[in-house]
Amino acid sequence: MSEQIKFFQNVQTYVEQAAAFTDLSKGLIDQIKACNAVYRINFPVKIKDKIKVIEAYRVQHSHHRMPTKGGIRYSIMVDQDEVMALAALMTYKCAVVNVPFGGAKGGIKINPKEYTEEELERITRRYAFELIKKGFIGPSLDVPAPDYGTGEREMSWIVDTYMQFNQQEINGHACVTGKPIGQGGIHGRTEATGRGVFYGLRYACTFADDMKKLGLEPGLEGKSVIIQGFGNVGYYSAKVMYENGAKIIGIAEYEGGLYNPNGIDIDDLKKYQLRNKTIKNYPKAKFIKQSSLLLEEACDILIPAALENQITKDNAPRIKAKIIGEAANGPITPNAEAILQKKGIMIIPDMYLNAGGVTVSYFEWLKNLSHVSFGRLDHRHQDESFNRIVDLIETNTGRRISKREKSALRGADELDIVRSGLEDTMISSYENIRTIFKRHKKMQGLRTAAYVDALEKIGITYAKMGVFP
């Protein structure tokens, strides 16, 4: 019998498991678990010559920090349980990476592939209008972002709609993140979640004692990797890991999967996908029609980067990966996790590993509030300082510095600063989680440690608010 899965209940189960390792009261834990506000919307949109009623949601899970923050997904699978679960995960995710937001999430129950661009714009702008009416969007209230099925285009429609109703709001562009650069976006946001996955996995693999337990050598280079999903998160995870020496042996997509034990050239595959609108018939790898079977192939690292509930108690016994890095939200059910832990598989949890997106969204929000790009004020000054250092070296040594060496000595631009901030966040957050895990001998895995970290930080915030003693 297949596993009956309720995503929000899965998240609650993880919270309850972690609560046992804290000193927080039951009342406080109950408050942390609860969704503060659930907004279900049904609105009409004219599609071709008919009126279609669209079902949509926005959930604000926690108001312990404001504004709330979370993406908007377009999927036919959207329902209230999923959006509540994703909003809750955002609360804990923000706490783990020390981003001062409460968690939120939004969703529209559509298959975006079934609509024209004009129709999607109509749907998006009407959804934004509904959020504006109820105070579910604003720089200090609730800040959406892209998620599954959405991107810069949808965020540009939302910010434009918001500004039409809030023309005097000087910080209005901070009402949403993941925007195009020309509308106040930030360099590095598109790649942020995937690059964060890389930073997290690379750092986790530096601990020799942890790798020894898995029968692996320290470091990411040379490790075999299978990735489920080749959308934004999956592609950038694969790309950055490939560029840094990992061997991508499998890519699983909804239309089928690719497998090559000698490795797949990610840049070449992406060019093929863009040219053919599919990864089918890619000539340099074996095509596997049932892509879910790729999850069960032997590899060092498995990265589910698609949707939730992909590894259940039904397929968990057949998982052969040594490390699972959760780039997607909730890809492993609690029942499956128990099986994987007994097998000695290391699970690096979603609420930490895919937090790159919200981390860089936070940078974008700060940029919009400060009204200046990172690096703009001192980039030229740094360049001139480095040039003077190079001149001194050349004068005193008689050696000419090459162009390549000079290019390394330049002031940091916005992308450099964003990547540096993201890497530092992923490293320091993992250190916190690992320290908690090592401190509690009876703790089963890093996920529980991450939840403990989040609960304790949220509990401290509530205590300072005077809500709980």
How much helix is in the residues?
A: 40-55%
Q: Secondary-structure element sequence?
A: HHEEEHEHEHHHEHEEHEEEHEHHHHHH
Q: What is the CATH architecture descriptor of the largest domain?
A: 3-Layer(aba) Sandwich
Tell me the fraction of residues in β-strands, as a range.
5-15%
Low-pLDDT windows of residues: none
Question: What is the distance, rounded to the nearest whole angstrom, between the alpha carbons of the first and last residues?
Answer: 46 Å
How big is the Rg? 23 Å
Give the class-level CATH name of the largest domain. Answer: Alpha Beta
* Number of H/I helices: 16
Global morphology: globular
Question: What is this entry, summarized?
Answer:
By secondary structure, this protein is of the alpha/beta class. It is built from 16 helices and twelve strands. The protein has helices at 7-19, 26-33, 80-96, 117-133, 152-165, 192-204, 208-214, 232-243, 266-276, 334-342, 350-353, 356-370, 379-397, 403-408, 414-439, 446-465; strands at 37-47, 50-60, 68-74, 102-108, 142-146, 224-228, 247-253, 256-259, 286-288, 301-304, 323-325, 346-348.
Which descriptors would you attach to this protein?
alpha/beta; 7-stranded mixed β-sheet; 5-stranded mixed β-sheet; globular; 16 helices; Rossmann fold; 2 domains; 12 strands; 469 residues
Your description of this structure?
The protein is of the alpha/beta class. It has two domains: 38-183, 3-Layer(aba) Sandwich (Rossmann fold), CATH 3.40.50.10860; 187-375 and 412-447, NAD(P)-binding Rossmann-like Domain (Rossmann fold, 3-Layer(aba) Sandwich). It contains 16 helices and twelve strands. A seven-stranded mixed beta sheet has the order 9-8-7-6-10-11-12, sandwiched between helices. The protein has a five-stranded mixed beta sheet with strand order 1-2-4-3-5. The longest helix is centred in the C-terminal third of the chain and has 26 residues, at 414-439. It is globular, with a radius of gyration of 23 Å. The N and C termini lie far apart (46 Å). The model has no long low-confidence stretch (mean pLDDT 91).
